[in-house]
Design goal:
Blueprint lengths: L1 H20 L8 E10 L4 E12 L4 E10 L2 E5 L2 E20 L3 E20 L4 E20 L4 E11 L6 E11 L1
Antiparallel strand pairs: 1-2, 1-9, 2-3, 3-5, 4-5, 5-6, 6-7, 7-8, 8-9
Length: 178
Amino acid sequence: MLVMKILVKALFLLLGGLVLATTQAEAQQISIGGGVGYGSKAENANVQVNFYYRLSSLPMRIGADGSYSIPDKSSFSGGETRRDLVDGNLNLHLMAIDTDLFSMYSITGLNMTYNRLKTDFDDGSSISASDTFYGFNIGVGTELEIGKGRWFGEAKYLIREDSDESEFVVGAGMRIRI
């Protein structure tokens, strides 16, 4: 487990440095966007943001995305429990099809997930526990040009160090080129 945490952190730094070190970005090669999704572990909708840079000499994009699951709340006799889930990914998209109208790509990347569980009791006291999980993701995605941006749809599986925390995630939204 410790080796996986160190490996994932090192790869996060390496990919992050690669993105920051790219200084000759052309306007049409950078895209930002957002959307909504659903994760099988959170069993709740989430909101997403993403940033991608198209490598001009290779059929690839590198970038990052993040999501925040709408808090899952449950009441019980004597209080309420709330679960917050935040995901961050550094991704590589290998472009199988990449035209002005339509793109299809595979997704692979690194994942970091923060999970917090907080229980508030009616007497005013509370307890909280949190974990951070590291792992990898693999999936597929597609984009369709609509004139003002590109609609995207993605499906990926997050393989986390704690196999009980692994999950299937789908998302859809829009990206614009800047």
